[in-house]
Design brief:
alpha/beta; single chain
Length: 158
């Protein structure tokens, strides 16, 4: 078994627009910076806005489109996690789902490339899997600062 398992699924209509090796490098940069050591598993999904909106409605009870969702498997702070993970030593982080069209829209609004927006969304989603949140102002400030640091770290390696 491979020690690092980063699964990437790109919906057919977005294939060729998302480079899987590029996305893997971003994930590895974030996990390395956050001290996550192998073996681990994580999944990234690039899909359409309708799918992300439906997942947001079904799992978060928010009937609105969004750019990224994170479904974590690690116990989160303050949670009573009774979900048993197999005792094989693999850290199963969860799944990040990104709306490709929403990323493109946001990149235009922010005046930067879709690649930069997707990089930010991957970083944001992975940080959520690791327990970061932005519900409270203090948490949001901490998460946004870490996102900036990780973006700079990733870009400096290019």
């Amino acid at each position: 078994m491979s020690e690092e398992k980063i699964e990437i699924f790109v919906e057919e209509k977005f294939r060729g627009l998302v480079v899987e090796d590029w996305a893997r490098r971003i994930v590895k940069t974030v996990l390395e910076a956050e001290g996550v050591t192998s073996p681990y598993e994580v999944s990234l999904v690039f899909t359409d806005s309708e799918t992300v909106k439906q997942l947001n409605r079904d799992y978060r009870e928010v009937d609105e489109p969004t750019d990224v969702l994170a479904f974590y498997m690690l116990p989160q702070k303050g949670s009573d996690s009774s979900f048993a993970l197999p005792p094989d030593g693999v850290t199963r982080l969860g799944e990040v789902i990104i709306s490709y069209p929403q990323a493109v829209k946001q990149s235009k609004e922010q005046g930067h490339s879709p690649e930069k927006e997707l990089t930010l969304l991957i970083i944001h989603g992975i940080l959520h899997l690791l327990g970061y949140d932005h519900e409270e102002p203090e948490e949001e400030s901490k998460m946004r600062e870490r996102e900036r640091e990780l973006l700079e770290r990733y870009l400096s390696r290019q």
